[in-house]
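Lab notebook, bench 4. The sequencing result for the construct came back, and we need a structural model before the next group meeting so we can plan mutations. Quick request posted to the team channel:

Model the 3D structure of this chain.
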Amino acid sequence: MDSARSASPSPAQRPVFAGAAAGALAVLTVVNLLNYLDRFVVSALVESLKRSELALSDTELGLLMTGFILVYMLASPVFGALGDRGARPRLVAAGVLVWSAATTLAGFARSFATLFAARAAVGVGEAAYGTISPGLIADLFPRSARGRVMSIFFAAIPVGAALGYVVGGLVDRALGWRAAFFVAGAPGLVLAFLCLRLRDPPRGGQDEGEPSGAPRTTALAAYGELLRNRSYVLTVLGYAAYTFAVGGMAFWMPAFLERVRAVPPAQATVQFGGIVVVTGFVGTFAGGWLGDVLLRRTAQAYLWLSGIATLIAAPVAWIVFADPRPGVYLPAVVIAELLLFASTGPINSAILNEVAPGERATAVALSILAIHVLGDVPSPPLIGRISDASSLGRAVLIMPVAILIAGAIWTLAAWLGARGAGAPVIEQRVR
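Done. Here's the predicted structure in token form:
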């Protein structure tokens, strides 16, 4: 038999969206949608929780998101190490099961403490899923397609978040805030079973000419090595500033529309949710496609795209919060969201491509820890604290500043990378 015909096709020659890889991407994307629905359903319930028998303050409401994020980020390094060394489908399935049960239990809360505990427990399950899934997907698809693939996966973020607002708001109005948690948590049981049946691809199997997919060091040494990777560190720092702004906006935007813009409660959640769905789909897919196209011209394409789009988004976001006219701030919301979502696929692809295949779960875990410690852990309660001291309209003005910082850091990282000053560790090894 002709050896050329019998040889297996290289990653670049294989169909990108075919067979088991496409099926796994579909399952993991649907789970990611549920991930963000569970995460943001509480945002749609802010005003109801404030008026409920729990009588929560704005600071306590902000702490609900912070409690989840704290557990999520602290558990992530543990699952990052496990994800680079263990059976990934089992870990993912266990995570989905845990967070779904915790979301359901939130509906039984009788005090701020019990609601806080339930929301914090969601972070354990999401840590298992969030750290492991991106690397698993990267091992199913070639490097040249990862901008598009990650855009498909991360498009579930705006859709899931929007469904959290819409489903949470509609169920809250019809059946109360407790029922909203029950509805959000139920689908996880079925999805956990589907995750358990996924195959675990070889680590690094889609990366030609790169180091082995097996972890080369201990988990602690791997984290230390990541901190010496300048390109990775700058990418994550920019991501932290971005997460500060996006996390604060995601949590407080429905309340801002109700309280500051006098939008009716049901309309505020559905209106913002609808904008997030549309802009999330368009912005995320456009960013992933454009990032892969530009990658043919420069290795820093993902960073350039993310940096420039985010720099443009900063002044537009300022208009959203500073101009009270619906004919001005609503179009500005659409434009700002499109620009922010454009970086979702590219920036996560950049993180995965900047490290060795056997360290991807570890790299994602450290990224999760950093972006939440510096990002959406402090932002919701900080905005709530400023709101309690002055007004929500003033408090939200810190978000455009954070967006500007994110764009500046990513643009700097792209510029340094183009000059060779921030070349990823993985590229240095291959050379």
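The domain at 20-206+218-430 is CATH 1.20.1250.20 (Growth Hormone; Chain: A;).
Will bring this to the meeting.
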